[in-house]
Every structure is written in structure tokens, then in C-alpha cells.
């Protein structure tokens, strides 16, 4: 990783944080196959999509770092930043102890990895793993027992990344997105 610095920030830096792109191209999805209507378990099978497409969460309504400040009280949130010299190249945002954030389930022993991103030119260099480790450190300091990570089955690269970090797939919701019926929510958990 060379001279990459991973550091803690607060949410006043979200505007700068949001300048690192989060968009990714979907070439395949993790198809959720239910065995015996789910009684026999689930199998996730990576299958190519008919036509590749781009997902950019920052461009979606109510999404993006600057909008989070308007939507939630982010006082308890953490920001992890990755820099190459003075250039911001990635980071993560962690939600914690925030009323109205459903992912936290009203619990103070769960934090949610709200967002993680690495600049295109720096991907596949171990920077995401270093950022993830800082997230774990941040959560442990707050005595959290779980780091919850919501992902979608069309973000295969992210799902493989979370599994590589030791996260366990804890929930599959086939019907989480009424406006996107072909997309399932996969919720990962890192035990702290």
C-alpha cells in the first residue's frame, strides 16, 4: 500500500468524502436459489447479466453523503478516510446509535457500515481491507458486538469483499426493493 494513510474523521468531512466515486459496473449477480421453497436452504450462484449496467448510489434520490447530513443526526457517526499523500482516495462511513436508522435496529451494540468506497485507480490494492479494519477498530472502541453491512446481490464484488473480510451472510431479503424486484438485499455481519 505504500504511503497510504488511513485516518479517522468526523461527518463535517462528508462533502469531501463524497468526491470519491462509489459507482460500479454490474457484469453478474448473485442469483438466490431456494431449495424446497427455502426449507432446504439457499444457494447463491453467480450468473452473468444479459447486459452490463452501472450503479451509482450517490445519484439516487435521498442518497449521497451530503444528503445524509440533512436526513439524519450524524453526531454519532464515524468517517474513515484514506489518503495517498494529500489526495483522498477512499473511506467508509459508519452509522451508530442514531434514531430512525432502521439498520441499527434501535440497538447500541450494532453499528452499520453505511458506505465504503475506493477510487477506481486504487481498487484491488488492499486499501478497502485497510479501511475495513479501521471500521472494526472504530466499532470495537464503542463496544459494539456486530458490524452490520447491507449489500445487494448485483454488487458481487462487494459481497466477495465482505466474505473475504470474515463477514457472515446473516439475512437474505428477496423483496427488500419494491421498485427493483430483481434485486435482493444481502445483509452481512462482522462479529466484533
From TrEMBL:
<dbReference type="InterPro" id="IPR000182">
    <property type="entry name" value="GNAT_dom"/>
</dbReference>
<keyword id="KW-0808">Transferase</keyword>
<dbReference type="InterPro" id="IPR016181">
    <property type="entry name" value="Acyl_CoA_acyltransferase"/>
</dbReference>
<dbReference type="Pfam" id="PF00583">
    <property type="entry name" value="Acetyltransf_1"/>
</dbReference>
<feature type="domain" description="N-acetyltransferase">
    <location>
        <begin position="42"/>
        <end position="187"/>
    </location>
</feature>
<protein>
    <submittedName>
        <fullName>GNAT family N-acetyltransferase</fullName>
        <ecNumber>2.3.-.-</ecNumber>
    </submittedName>
</protein>
<dbReference type="GO" id="GO:0016746">
    <property type="term" value="F:acyltransferase activity"/>
</dbReference>
<keyword id="KW-0012">Acyltransferase</keyword>
<dbReference type="InterPro" id="IPR008125">
    <property type="entry name" value="Streptothricin_AcTrfase"/>
</dbReference>
